[in-house]
Amino acid sequence: MRIDLHTHSRASDGTDTPAELVRAASGAGLDVVAITDHDTATGWAEAEETAREVGIELVRGMEVSTRHQGAGVHMLAYLPDPTHPGLEQALAKILAGRNSRVPAMLERLRTHGIAIQAQDVRRVSPGTAATGRPHVADALVELGVVSDRTEAFRQWLNPGRPAYVDRYAASLLDVMAVVAQAGGVSVIAHPWGRHGPDQPDEAEIAALAQAGLAGLEVDHQDHGADDRCRLRAIARNLGLVVTGSSDYHGTGKRDHDLGVNTTAPEEYARLLELAAAAAQRSGRATPQVLRP
To answer: Which tens digit of pLDDT belongs to each residue from 48-88?
Structure first.
């Protein structure tokens, strides 16, 4: 069984529609795929319809932008009730932060002589719940300023570069709590991929586990072999689920092909058991895994 638990569609910063994403997952030989767009459940309905058509198992989730001890942390939330008021409020605030930074980024680019307007960004981001840096990058590609997203981030949009603008991110612990209240479970995405090894370290991960963290995304393209080995040991020591995934963004991210990393079936089963228990504790009608 081939299981990929982290993918993005055009509902956030991927380049495939949710339907195209699910079809691509089926075509790549996956048995299970999770749709985990940034800070939104907008793509779930379309993905569900297509999953029924092609006969693939679908897990509904999202990747929530959070901050912990001053550092940005991406948190994968699986199977929460998206209508939970606390979750809706948290996501709305995060999405507002995403949208509000774009005008400031465009203004900074214009001060460097790049003629880019809001309509250029809108043109390359149809169907997204909120625009952000990847869409600005796509507009720069279309305008011929850079060759691809990677160059746009490296030259203009990464922290410390001329057009970078910070944005609001929710507290990781607060988001974990509200996801639990919404009947979902939380997994830290690519934990050492953004800030380097040991950030967070084992003691910090242990504290998160005490607060209800379900798992770590260990097998990810941003983790080298040594990092994967050490993260797997930490997860084993703390009883956390180990996941693996592609972090697929369509053509928006190189070397993140569907199924490039996968989750072991026994770890997937553990994750679903934890999600079922969280749903029962919450008393809410949470989304179920859609099986063929």
So the answer is: 999 999 999 999 999 999 999 988 999 999 999 999 999 99
For the chain, helix (H) and strand (E) counts, in that order, are: 10, 8
All residues at 6 or more sequence positions from 233 whose CB lies less than 8 Å from its CB, including other chains: none
What is the mean pLDDT of the segment spanning 118-129?
A: 91
Please, which residues have CB within 8 angstroms of residue 34's CB and are 6 or more apart in sequence? Answer: 4, 5, 6, 7, 58, 59, 60, 61, 76, 78, 245
138: Cβ–Cβ under 8 A, 6 or more apart, which residues? 121, 124, 125, 149, 152, 252
Q: Where is pLDDT greater, at 99 or 20?
A: 20
Record the tokens describing residue 143, joined without a space. Answer: 């305008």
Burial 125-154 (b: 16+ CB within 10 A, else e): beebbbbbbbbbbbbbbeeebbeebeebbe
Q: What share of the chain is helix, strand, coil (3-state, %, to 5)?
A: 40, 15, 40
- Measured between alpha carbons, how far is 11 from 17 in angstroms, rounded to an integer? 7
CATH code, 96: 3.20.20.140
Q: How many CA atoms lie within 13 A of 209 on its CB side?
A: 18
Q: How many folded domains does the chain comprise?
A: 1
Domain extent for 186? 1-292
Q: Determine the pLDDT at residue 253.
A: 87
As a whole number, the mean pLDDT across the chain is 96
pTM: 0.93
- The amino acid that residue 82 corresponds to is P
What angle is formed at CA 221 by the lines to CA 163 and CA 93, rounded to 5 degrees? 45
